[in-house]
Write a structure and sequence with these properties.
Blueprint (H helix, E strand, L loop, with lengths): L1 E8 L7 H11 L7 E7 L10 E8 L11 H18 L3 E7 L2 E11 L9 H13 L4 H9 L7
């Protein structure tokens, strides 16, 4: 399970963003060791103007077993990217992905450069909590349906 913030930016990350992002990651005590930043040029996409894709990835596998405030990590990433999106007129998609199924993703929200736009933090938290919990097994659904022992009277 992974929280991703992906975006296309119009400035070369080597001109300061990469160092700021790496410094941001080093400066915080995360609830997981699975925190990553990556960027790359996108020459196929950027025919009118140069573009680069950047990604922050935060592992969430530890969440069901932790009492730490894991959502504070998600908030930190959002708060790091919001000023950048406004400054460089770009947007980031916030999504949940399963490591076991790379094709599967759930869009949580967007960070945009629109004036007054804000990420719906309560929605992102609720979605992540629901997705991390996962679907109950057939056995859990059966027990929940009958809510108690089954007797044969």
């Amino acid at each position: 399970m992974v929280f991703l913030a992906d975006g296309m930016v119009p400035v070369d990350p080597a001109l300061g963003l990469r160092e700021r992002a790496q410094s941001f990651i080093r400066s915080r005590r995360w609830t997981t060791s699975s925190i990553h930043y990556g960027d790359q040029a996108e020459p196929e996409i950027s025919q009118r103007r140069p573009s680069w894709s950047i990604t922050f990835g935060l592992g969430l596998v530890h969440v069901p077993k932790t009492t730490a405030d894991w959502f504070a990590d998600v908030l930190e990433i959002i708060e790091f990217l919001q000023p950048f999106a406004r400054e460089h007129r770009c947007e980031f998609i916030l999504e949940f992905r399963l490591s076991s199924r790379p094709w599967y993703s759930e869009t949580l929200d967007y960070i945009t450069d629109a004036p007054g736009a804000a990420v719906d933090i309560a929605h992102v938290r609720a979605m992540l909590q629901r997705l991390i919990r996962g679907k109950p097994s057939w056995w859990q659904r059966l027990v929940a349906r009958y809510k108690g022992p089954v007797t044969l009277d």
